[in-house]
Amino acid sequence: MKTTVRKNEFTLQFIEQASKCDTKADLKILIESLKDVIDFSVWSCTLVVYDQEVKSHFNINTFPKLWTVEYVLRRYYKVDPIVLKNFSPKSLGKYQFWSNTFEECKKEATDNSNKQISFIEKSKKFSELKNGITIGCQNNFNQEGLVFSIAGPNIEDTQDNQTILSSIVYYILVAIDNTQTKLRGNILTQQETKCIDQAQRGFTNIEIAKILSIKQSTVKTHMDNAYRKLDASNRANAVAIALSKKLIKHI
């Protein structure tokens, strides 16, 4: 661990800065400041919603772009040992030193082992990803959580690193939530939001028109505008996106 900043002082500074994050740029500066106390090269933040399974709905990272694209296109999350071993709805947030998890994976004789080992070897072709640490936290109130990873050729599995990461990971979630709130802004008008909220409750356009005391054609216009703004393909998709962006609340 670098000694330029005492870990206790750093943690307090980090928590204070996390509360002030308004933009993605602020979030990047916040996470980059972690390099003052831990030696790493790249990082990734993934906000997830968990119910029967863990699903990502926000990610920001500095991982190699080629790897990020390949990871998504080839659906590596289906064989990634870090994801499979510890990031389920029941265990989201466990501290993992990648080398330890990878070694455990190689010792296990499962149908998925060969695919996992192939994944590990492919990731190590990128020097920044030869080793890393992943940790997370849950917010049980809204079934949301954070998966945070840092990686680099010189990263170490020390008690200091684990203590620091465990202390600040929740505040990264707070910072992301702050930036998401700012980004959401007024993406939907009040009436559009009301229509999507009523759609979540299973009401038809005719029923929504009666509930909101507006014309059915007006409801259709609001719904069409909401689809466009949310880049949604249909009614169910619009509701799902609005929920993930916290534009409406779960009923």
Folded structure, characterized:
With 251 residues, the protein is an alpha+beta fold. The chain is built from eleven helices and five strands, in the order H-H-E-E-H-H-E-H-H-E-E-H-H-H-H-H. Strands 2-1-5-4-3 form a five-stranded antiparallel β-sheet. A hairpin with a 4-residue loop joins strand 4 and strand 5. It starts with 6 loop residues before the first helix and ends in a 7-residue tail after the last helix. The model has no long low-confidence stretch (mean pLDDT 86).
Secondary-structure element series: HHEEHHEHHEEHHHHH
What multimeric state do the chains show?
Answer: single chain
Provide a count of the helices. Answer: 11
Extended strand count = 5
Low-confidence stretches: none
Shape: globular
- Rg, nearest Å: 21 Å
Secondary structural class: alpha+beta
Task: Report how far apart the termini are.
Answer: 46 Å
Sheet bearing the most strands, described?
5 strands, antiparallel
Range of strand content: 5-15%
Average predicted confidence as pLDDT: 86
